[in-house]
Fold this sequence. Notes:
Elements: E1 16-21, H1 29-37, E2 44-49, E3 56-64, H2 67-77, E4 91-94, H3 98-103, E5 105-109, H4 117-124, E6 130-137, E7 143-151, H5 154-164, E8 178-181, H6 185-199, H7 211-216, H8 252-266, H9 287-294, E9 355-359, H10 367-374, E10 380-387, E11 394-402, H11 405-415, E12 419-421, E13 423-424, E14 426-429
Antiparallel strand pairs: 1-3, 1-4, 2-3, 5-7, 5-8, 6-7, 9-11, 9-14, 10-11, 12-13
The chain binds one DNA strand through strand 1, strand 2, strand 3, strand 9 and strand 11.
Amino acid sequence: MAEDNKEATPSGDESVKLFVGQVPKHMTEAQLLAMFQEFALVDEVNIIKDKTTRASRGCCFVLCPSRHEADKAVSACHNKKTLPGASSPLQVKYADGELERLEHKLFVGMLPKNVSEADLSDLFSKYGTIKDLQILRGSQQTSKGCAFLKYETKDQALAALETINGKHKMEGSNVPLVVKWADTEKERQARRAQKAQSQGSNMPNADLQHPSLFGALPMGYVPPYNGYGYQGPGSYGIMPYRLPPMQNQPGFHGMIPPINQGNALRGGIRPNLSPNMAPRNYGVPPASYVGSAYHPAVPGVQYPMTYPGGMMGHRPIGGSPSSASHQVSSSSSPGSSSGVTTSSGSQVEGPPGANLFIYHIPQEYGDQELANAFKGFGNVLSAKVFVDKATGFSKCFGFVSYDSPAAAQGAIAVMNGYQLSGKKLKVQLKRDNNKQSKPY
DNA sequence: TCATATT
C-alpha cells in the first residue's frame, strides 16, 4: 500500500486538539487515552485540573495526529458515550481556537475603501491558494476597509503575512496593509466583554460615567486587527504580531480607581452606614427607611433597591447588624457538620431539599448580593449567580444552598414572587437530577 | 429556567 500521497501540507502541524467534557473526575489520563484509542489515533490526553487544588475539573484535552482522526473521535464519542459516573454523555469538540488555527485565516486591515475582492485576490494569490476571501461591508455594501482571507496551508498564510504586513501599500493608499492572524472566537468574545465593560451603557445607572474620565479612555484605539496567532504545540512558533490586550494598555488601568472611588463616595449603597457617615445619598433614603419602606417583613434583606453607582462587580458588604449573620465565605461553622456533601471542588451543595434555584435575580447582583438576600433564612452554604462567559454579565439566575431543607422552605415562602428590582424573583427547589441513585 | 468545564 504505497501511501506516498503527500498533501500540500508539509509541516507536521496538522494535529488537532479536542476538548472533552463530562469526564468523571476520578478517571486518569491513561484510562482516557485507552478509551479514545478505541475510536481514533490519539497522541495524548491532558486532564484539565483546577489550578490550585489540582483536582480534575471534569474535562480534558485529547490530541489527535490529524483532522481525520479527530473527526473520528468526535463522531464516535460526542453525545454517544456516557462514562461511568457521569450524568450525561461525553461532549467532544474542537478545542477553542482549533478551527481558526486550522483554517489558516488572516485578517487584512487598512484596505482602501474602493478595493475589490479581485484586487485582493491578485495580491494575495501570489503566496498560495486562497480558499476563501471576503471584504467586510456595511449596509450599503460599503467596504469597512478590512477583509478575511483563508489559505490552504499555514505556510502560505505565513508567507503572505510576513511579506505584506506593514510593508505593502495598495494603489491609491499611503498606509501599508495590516495582516494578522484572525481572532479566535474566544478573542472576539473577550473584546466584546471588555467593550461592554468600558462603555458601561445598558447599566441601570449612568451617574458613574464621569465625562472627563471617559474622554481620556483610549476608546478610539480599538484596532480590529488586534489579534494574535495561536501558538499550539510545535506549530506556529513565535508570533511577533500580538498586541497587548486593552486592559494592559497605558491609561486604562489608571482610569479604574478614580471611577470606583467616585462610586464609593456616592454612598448610599451601604445601608448599614450610620446616616451621618454617609456623605450624601443623592435621593436615596437612609438605610433604615429603605429597609422598612421596601422590605417589610423580609428578614436579612437590607440593601437599597437602587445602586446609585453600582457597577456590576462587587460592592463592599460591611458587617451587618442583622440578627441572622451568617456569612458565606467563612463557612466553617463548627455546629453544623453532618449531611453536607463537601464534594471535591468549588460550590458546596446542601442536603436534598436544601438547594434553591432562583430566577429573575437583578442584573447587578453577584454571588455576594445573592447570599446577602437569602441569608436571613438559615445558614447559607453557597450562593452562585451565573455569569455569561463572554460578556461577564449576570444571566440573572443562580443557586443558593442551605444546610437544612427548612431554611430553603422558609426562603421559598418569603422570597418567591418577591420583587427585588423590576421583576419578581422565582424561588424554587433546585432540580435534583443525578445523585447516583442506585436501584439495586 | 437548573452547577457546561478550554490546561
